[in-house]
Structure formats: C-alpha cells, structure tokens
C-alpha cells in the first residue's frame, strides 16, 4: 500500500509551499491539490525562470508525474485557462499530465461579484479576501447549490442559469447594481469549453487505486493552518479546511493512508489581508523583512504584513496537523539581523500562556526569546556542514521549542537553494 504525504502551511499562507512541492515531487508518483482555489499563488524558481501557480499543482515541472486537482478544490475556468495557456507558451504542456475531479466546484463570474459585495458590506470589518469568489463558492457547496466540474458533462447551461439567477437575486438583495455580464459569461463559457480537453475523473478512485498499487502521493496544501475555517483566526480566514484533515476530505482518502505531514513555515511570519497578527512589526525590522523577503502577494500584489516567528501559533498548528517533519523557509531573509526574536509565549491580561487562545483579537503581548543572528549570506550554501553555527543554533532552538525535527532548510527562492537534512 502506498501512502499520502501531506505538505501544508503552518502560518498564514505564502510559506513557500510551491517551491518545496517542486523539490519533493521526484520522490512521488502523483501530486494532488486538495483545497483552496486561485486564491493561492505558489511560486517556483528554477533555471532562471519564475512561475506562479494558482490552481495547477506544483508537481508539473518534474518529469511526467500525474497532477490532480482534487474534489476539495474550487476551480475558476477562466483563470485556469489563463494559467494553463501561459504554461503551454513557456514550454510546459499539461494536457496529458493533469486530471480534474468531477466533484470539484466551479467558481462562476457571479461568485466573484458576491465576494466583492460581501467585502463591501463588511466595510471596516472586511476580511481582505483575494476577491476570487472563494467564500461564495464554498458557501454554495455547503448550502447544496454548487455547480461542479462533472456538471459540464450534463446539462451545464441549465445548472449554470439556476445558480446565476440565484446569485443575481442575492446581489439585488444586497443593493448591488449588477454590471453587464455579457463579456464575463462569454469568457466563462469559452473557458468551460477549453476545460473539456482535460480528463475529468472520479479522483477518489484514481487516488486510491494509485495507493493500492503501492505508489505514493504528495498532497499539496494551499493557504495556511492559521487561515483554516475551523481553527484559524476566524472570521479572518479562508473558507476551507487547510489543515491535514482537509486532505482526507479533499481527496477522498482515509486518514490511515496519511504518512508524513510536512509542516512548512517561514523563519519569521507574514500575513496578507486583514485580521489579528500578535507578532506583527511596524518598525524598521518589519520593513527589512518585507524588503529582503520581497513580501508582496503572489496573487494580488498586496504588501504582506511582517513580524517575528510566533511559536505559540506554530505549536498549535503543529498539533492540529500532526506534523512529523518541519520545513523552514526564507532563512536568508534574516541574514542581516544582529538579533532574532521568537515569540515563546503570550501575555494576556497579565497571565503568561503557551497555549493558543480562543481568540487572538484581544490585547496580546508577545513574550520574546532573543537569539543571536548569524549575519552572513546563507544563499550560496547547499550543504548543512557549511552553515554558520549561529544559524544552526537558531534551528536547534526551534526544534527544542517545537518538538519536531526540521528536515529541510530553504536559503533562497531557487529550487537549488534547499538543504535537505533528512
Ligand atoms: P506559497 O504560497 O506557500 O507557495 O508561497 P508564495 O510563493 O506565495 O511565497 C513565497 C515567496 O518566497 C515566493 O516569492 C518564493 O519565490 C520565495 N521563497 C521561497 N523560499 C524562499 C527562500 O528560502 N528564501 C527567499 N529569499 N525566498 C524564498
Ligand atoms: P497561498 O496558497 C496568503 C487570505 C486572504 C484573506 C483570507 C480570505 O498562496 O499560501 P479568500 O480569498 O481565501 O476568501 O481570502 O485568506 N489568503 C491567503 N493569504 N496566502 C494564500 O494562499 C491565501 N489565500 C487566501 O488574504 O486574508
Ligand atoms: Mg502564496
């Protein structure tokens, strides 16, 4: 029996999942996305080229491995087409290597309008979504009104029309003036036609048969555990289960099939969009992280908020996911810092806690440990033996605090700038 190893973000997304899925793909027979949609932006760099993937799994650049868009994903045909065409134009045809679950839900043009209208109605309380229609599409799924990829094989127009009319009613109810949809619908239907060249599959069978034949699968998470609909900083979260359990429902595999759980985090912390962020920095240190880490959203281009690493939140997400191996990214971004801080505990109403509280939308004072910086350029190193002692001391400190080994260290955006320890 093969196994499913899961790779997922432990913070608020953008940890570097795309890069590491690409690095790990040669070890697997298949790569599968299990949740999220084009709100994700997964960046990969190799051979001087940079790619940002949104709906396409990050296993497509390593040989002819099959990549799966699982049932837990929400798919926007228009953005998918753009993504696939741009990959084709750069010499990466996907048609024979990418399959799509019939049970994945479709993002319609009106879902995007509902996303925008919902945010507008929230005013100052807005979530700061990516505007891709993610929330409304998952809402339709749960309220049993969704349109699925498999519907394309049936009377799709009728399904589409029913959903659209419902959405228009909702928009009118919100007092939104609905724009002319002629062009958006033409693009949408053209993209749905385009989608037909891909194989629609009952991916739960594809996946379980693959496992049965002794092959292994890498499940690629999107977003991060702090954006999980159940356990994240609700309501400032995304609309899917980003944690490891999401891979079981998002692919149709038993929890017993899960092998390693790779938890990926940055050597510091970022967040894009609104919502609480206890270790956020508004000073020169934060500015340096943003600049050195080039912290701008891969999808929206929005500046990402930066802060010190939050071990309270990380212990929580490691617990939720049952992480077996940690992966630390963007170590090089801290190269210039004389001192590095790590939030070991929170102080809330004068009481120190190491446990993540029900809500972080309250006055929280981060309690920091200070670790001496390494103050040298890590980006050229590719073996552990070359790494400076001060850096390895930071790694050892994190392993003690988090009680899980750090198996991979990333020291730059390129595929090659990766040190695999075990
Ligand atoms: P994802 O959504 O988790 O795949 O992450 P993103 O692609 O949104 O953001 C990660 C960003 O950091 C991308 O621009 C990567 O190219 C870049 N990156 C990944 N690993 C490293 C690293 O070790 N060092 C540096 N400096 N950049 C990295
Ligand atoms: P990757 O996979 C970082 C954030 C948005 C917003 C909230 C809800 O690249 O790590 P949504 O559009 O999902 O309804 O927005 O979630 N968000 C992300 N932040 N990385 C992502 O994906 C994100 N996907 C959504 O900024 O705060
Ligand atoms: Mg991203």
UniProtKB/TrEMBL annotation:
GO terms for molecular function: adenylosuccinate synthase activity; GTP binding; magnesium ion binding. Mg(2+) binds at residues 14, 41. It is found in: Cytoplasm. The active site is at residues 14, 42, 141. Pfam families: Adenylsucc_synt (PF00709). Gene3D superfamilies: Adenylosuccinate Synthetase, subunit A, domain 1, Adenylosuccinate Synthetase, subunit A, domain 2, Adenylosuccinate Synthetase, subunit A, domain 3. The keyword DNA-binding does not apply. It catalyses: IMP + L-aspartate + GTP = N(6)-(1,2-dicarboxyethyl)-AMP + GDP + phosphate + 2 H(+). GO terms for cellular component: cytoplasm. Transmembrane segments: none annotated. IMP binds at residues 14-17, 39-42, 130, 144, 223, 238, 302. Its cofactor is Mg(2+). GO terms for biological process: 'de novo' AMP biosynthetic process; IMP metabolic process. Binds 1 Mg(2+) ion per subunit. Pathway: Purine metabolism; AMP biosynthesis via de novo pathway; AMP from IMP: step 1/2. Its EC number is 6.3.4.4. Keywords: Cytoplasm, GTP-binding, Ligase, Magnesium, Metal-binding, Nucleotide-binding, Purine biosynthesis. Belongs to the adenylosuccinate synthetase family. NCBIfam families: PRK01117.1, purA. HAMAP family: Adenylosucc_synth. Homodimer. This is Adenylosuccinate synthetase.
């Amino acid at each position: 029996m093969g196994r499913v190893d899961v790779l997922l973000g432990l913070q608020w997304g953008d940890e570097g999942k795309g890069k590491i899925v690409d690095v790990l793909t040669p070890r697997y027979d298949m790569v599968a996305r299990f949740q999220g949609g084009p709100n994700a932006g997964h960046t990969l760099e190799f051979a001087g080229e940079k790619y940002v993937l949104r709906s396409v799994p990050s296993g497509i650049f390593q040989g002819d491995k099959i990549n799966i868009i699982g049932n837990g994903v929400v798919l926007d045909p228009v953005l998918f087409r753009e993504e696939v065409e741009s990959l084709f134009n750069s010499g990466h045809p996907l048609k024979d290597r990418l399959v799509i679950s019939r049970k994945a839900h479709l993002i319609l043009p009106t879902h995007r309008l509902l996303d925008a209208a919902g945010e507008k109605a929230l005013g100052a309380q807005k979530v700061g979504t990516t505007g891709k229609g993610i929330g409304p599409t998952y809402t339709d799924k749960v309220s049993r009104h969704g349109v699925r990829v498999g519907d394309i094989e049936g009377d799709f127009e009728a399904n589409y029309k029913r959903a659209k009319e419902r959405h228009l009613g909702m928009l009118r109810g919100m007092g939104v003036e609905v724009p002319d949809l002629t062009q958006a619908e033409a693009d949408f239907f053209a993209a749905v036609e385009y989608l037909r060249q891909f194989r629609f599959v009952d991916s739960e069978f594809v996946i379980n048969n693959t496992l049965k034949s002794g092959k292994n699968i890498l499940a690629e998470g999107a977003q991060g555990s702090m954006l999980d609909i159940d356990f994240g900083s609700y309501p400032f979260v995304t609309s899917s289960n980003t944690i490891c359990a999401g891979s079981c429902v998002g692919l149709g595999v038993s929890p017993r099939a899960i092998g390693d759980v790779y938890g990926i985090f940055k050597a510091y912390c970022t967040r894009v969009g609104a919502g609480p962020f206890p270790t956020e920095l508004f000073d020169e240190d934060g500015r340096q992280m943003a600049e050195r880490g080039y912290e701008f959203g891969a999808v929206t281009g929005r500046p990402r908020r930066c802060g010190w690493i939050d071990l309270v939140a990380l212990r929580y997400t490691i617990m939720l996911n049952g992480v077996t191996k940690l992966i630390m990214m963007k170590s090089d971004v801290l190269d210039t810092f004389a001192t590095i801080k790590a939030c070991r505990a929170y102080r809330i109403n004068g009481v120190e806690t190491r446990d993540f509280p029900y809500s972080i939308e309250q006055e929280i004072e981060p309690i920091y440990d200070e670790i001496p910086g390494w103050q040298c350029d890590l980006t050229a190193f590719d073996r552990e033996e070359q790494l400076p002692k001060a850096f390895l001391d930071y790694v050892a400190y994190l392993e003690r605090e988090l009680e899980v080994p750090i198996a991979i260290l990333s020291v730059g955006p390129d595929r090659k700038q990766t040190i695999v320890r075990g």
